[in-house]
Q: What sequence folds into this?
């Protein structure tokens, strides 16, 4: 499955992990994390997961590309899963019930449709606070963990750029999303909410974002 056909396909994370740890009740990691302004699929990304009901959430590095080991290397490796079908799709539903995670971000990139050259926009919270994308993960054939970010129909100003956006959870939804003991779809639906659409804004940025190997610096999120 091609990365370019899906969304969200690129994001930024530069808020120190010790600050994020307080929001999710996780232990402060030894490293505060290196700022990344152009996180691409097929790389290790920072995520938060919870191993058991008794344990606290923890930071972990997950491979951005979801392919459970039972697929035996022959299945697709999507970077996104649609919130409308993730609980019923056979490829994802086991992870949705038992292996949910949070992917922290300060914003994500999306491209104006049919623009030439492809014009990226940086989309973030208007108050510049970090956000947490809802994700799922599964063990891969090599024993590592791979993840996918859930997406929903675009809301607010994000719809100006693309018809999909990451599922961004509000603060009260972080704990239930991680909770391993909550496996019922309807229970999750009643407990988990996305952030208000009015919090989202965007602006055009440099086309250097289009090539992760060439663009990685803080200047990427500056208005073009």
A:
């Amino acid at each position: 499955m091609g990365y370019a056909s899906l969304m969200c396909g690129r994001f930024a994370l530069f808020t120190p992990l010790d600050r994020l740890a307080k929001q999710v009740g996780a232990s402060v990691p030894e490293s505060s994390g290196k700022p990344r302004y152009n996180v691409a699929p097929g790389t290790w990304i920072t995520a938060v997961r919870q191993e058991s009901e008794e344990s606290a959430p923890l930071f972990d590095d997950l491979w951005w590309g979801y392919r459970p080991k039972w697929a035996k290397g022959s299945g697709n490796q999507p970077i996104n899963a649609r919130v409308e079908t993730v609980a019923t799709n056979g490829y994802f539903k086991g992870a949705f019930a038992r292996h949910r995670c949070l992917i922290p971000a300060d914003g994500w990139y999306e491209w104006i449709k049919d623009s030439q050259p492809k014009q990226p926009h940086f989309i973030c919270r208007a108050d510049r606070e970090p956000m947490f994308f809802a994700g799922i993960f599964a063990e891969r054939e090599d024993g590592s963990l791979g993840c996918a970010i859930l997406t929903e129909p675009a809301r607010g100003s994000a719809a100006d750029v693309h018809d999909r956006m990451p599922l961004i959870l509000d603060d009260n939804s972080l704990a239930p999303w991680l909770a391993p003991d909550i496996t019922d779809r309807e229970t999750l639906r009643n407990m988990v909410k996305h952030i208000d659409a009015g919090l989202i804004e965007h602006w055009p940025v440099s086309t250097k974002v289009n090539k992760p190997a060439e663009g990685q610096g803080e200047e990427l999120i500056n208005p073009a």
The CA atoms of residues 206 and 224 lie 5 Å apart. The domain at 3-221 is CATH 3.90.1680.10 (hypothetical protein yedk fold).
